[in-house]
Design brief:
The protein is an alpha/beta fold and 476 residues long. The chain has two domains: 3-229, Spore Coat Polysaccharide Biosynthesis Protein SpsA, Chain A; 252-461, UDP N-Acetylglucosamine Acyltransferase, domain 1 (3 Solenoid). β2 (31-32) and β3 (35-36) form a beta hairpin. It starts with 7 loop residues before the first strand and ends in a 24-residue tail after the last strand. Bound molecules: uridine-diphosphate-N-acetylglucosamine and calcium ion. Calcium ion (CA) binds at residues 106, 108, 231, 233.
Length: 476
């Protein structure tokens, strides 16, 4: 048969309890850089086969399904979990007659790459008649993996689990990674003949000896990068896997043009996107769907989650969550931007400035100790030190509007709902409870208009949507 016509499907084993994690959370859902660990091999299997994999679930099946995404795979159930061989057998009803080759992997091996899965498939498909092609790695740290048994001519003849291995077998350096391509038709029948292990489980690894007994070819592919074989059985392994994945992500971004002053002190989740010429200073955390555009500098000491940072921004010792910064925004140290905030081009936030669910127009300056919540702020507004939008009246969140070119004096309380007109000013310590008309000065507690201000010559003709003249880097 032409190998390109073979139907290939990935099967991911994720029904085990993961007892050694000592956790209420199923092992395969433990987060690794922001995503469940099993999401990694699931994606790699999908990429290598071009098809949605089948996931075997059992322990907390519904939680695992929800955690990986009900649409990310077809799910089959294994209950009770009687071993890895028994787990694969649960996919038989769904796949028998529909699939020629199974690519099997485990949900607790998050570092395996799609390229590795493709190598196994290539080896398997280019040797027709092969019953099993398995992945092995040579290591001095067997970490409980099954040992690969070869005969005097180097042929693979079996796998022995560590728990059942003799001292001589334990000394074998070649171990079973737990990824296999199987001839599906052969496997369904072989699984019926797998013996019960001394531990009371049906081991998938015992199919190797069955194939050898039938004189069917078993092939092995050896992993080039042993880090890919990190399997997670305990939280110590989880930390090792995290470190290895972080190394891989950081290296890829550096090769793609990102500067990291001290790479080991930068945390980047797998979902983050970075542009060339971004600079990351130490103690920086980039999480979720964060995007950082070109020539922006992040850190030291910054935490960005689902943040969109435009080009040429500077974020220093600050937190940005679920918010957008347009180009050339400078924030920090110690600023916090959250809850769907949007900062226009050239905005400046200084220390202890907090902006929540607010839109700031281009060129807004907010240097120290201020809070804007549920506010819409026009362009070139100055927010004096200590300004607070009193947006919560104990029941509702109320909006504040501050129009273009307004100047809010230090320590102004804006008792929402309230509107500050274009070009208006408030005096230091004003408590604003009523709207302040454009081009007037309001002072006092409660604030009263005491004077009209003359609009600048060009005020009425200027289009507020044009970028500010005071942008830190000037016009482009
Ligand atoms: C298994 C292999 C071992 C290999 C190692 C590599 C067997 C018998 N042993 O050992 O040779 O070196 O992986 O990581 O296969 N699972 C189920 N249902 C079950 C049991 C397990 O779905 O009934 C799933 C688990 O959720 C896990 C995977 O299969 O994702 C592997 O199971 P685990 O118990 O971790 O096997 P190991 O002891 O690591
Ligand atoms: Ca394991």
């Amino acid at each position: 048969m032409d190998p390109s016509n073979l139907r290939i499907r990935g099967v991911l084993l994720a029904a085990g309890k993961g007892t050694r994690m000592k956790s209420r959370l199923p092992k395969v859902l433990h987060p690794l850089l922001g995503r469940p660990m099993a999401a990694y091999p699931l994606r790699a299997l999908h990429q290598a086969t071009g098809e949605k994999p089948v996931v075997v679930v059992g322990h907390q099946a519904e939680a695992v399904k929800a955690g990986l995404g009900p649409d990310a795979a077809d799910y089959v159930f294994q209950d009770p979990p009687l071993g890895t061989g028994h787990a694969v057998a649960q996919a038989r009803a769904l796949l028998e007659g529909r699939v020629d080759v199974l690519l099997v992997a485990a949900g607790d091996m998050p570092l395996l790459r799609a390229e590795t899965f493709r190598r196994i498939l290539e080896e398997h498909l280019s040797h027709p008649g092969t019953a099993i092609t398995l992945l092995t790695v040579e290591t001095d740290n067997a970490r409980g993996f099954g040992r690969i048994l070869r005969d005097e001519r180097g042929k693979v003849v079996g796998i022995v689990e560590e728990a059942h291995a003799t001292p001589e077998q334990k000394a074998i350096r070649e171990v079973n990674v737990g990824v296999y391509a199987f001839d599906a038709q052969w496997l369904w029948h072989a699984l019926e003949r797998v013996p019960l292990s001394p531990k009371g489980e049906y081991y998938l690894t015992d199919t190797v000896a069955l194939a050898v007994a039938e004189d069917l070819p078993v092939r092995a592919v050896t992993l080039e990068d042993p880090q890919e074989a990190i399997g997670v059985n305990t939280r110590v392994h989880l930390a090792e896997a995290t470190a290895a994945l972080l190394d891989r992500i950081r290296r890829n971004w550096m090769l793609a043009g990102v500067t990291m002053i001290d790479p080991h002190r930068v945390y980047i989740e797998d979902t983050v996107q970075l542009a060339p010429d971004v600079t990351l200073w130490p103690d920086t955390y980039l999480m979720g769907n964060t995007v950082v555009e070109g020539e922006s500098e992040i850190g030291p000491q910054s935490y960005l989650k689902n943040a969109h940072i435009g080009p040429r921004c500077r974020v220093w010792a600050s937190v940005v969550e679920d918010s957008t910064l347009e180009a050339e925004v400078h924030i920090g140290p110690y600023a916090r931007v959250r809850g769907g905030a949007h900062l226009g081009r050239g905005v400046f936030l200084g220390n202890y400035a907090e902006v929540k669910k607010s839109r700031l127009g281009p060129g807004v300056k907010m240097h120290h100790f201020s809070y804007l919540g549920d506010a819409t702020v026009g362009s070139n507004v100055n927010i004096g030190a200590g300004t607070i939008t009193c947006n919560y009246d104990g029941v509702r969140k109320n909006p504040t509007f501050i129009e273009d070119d307004a100047f809010i004096g230090s320590d102004t309380m804006l008792v929402a709902p309230v509107r500050i007109g274009r070009g208006a000013r408030t005096g230091a310590g004003a408590v604003v409870t009523k709207d302040v008309p454009p081009y007037t000065l309001a002072v006092g507690v409660p604030a009263r208009v005491i004077r009209r201000l003359s609009p600048p010559e060009d005020a009425s003709s200027r289009d507020p949507s044009t970028p500010p003249k005071t942008s830190p880097k000037g016009k482009e």
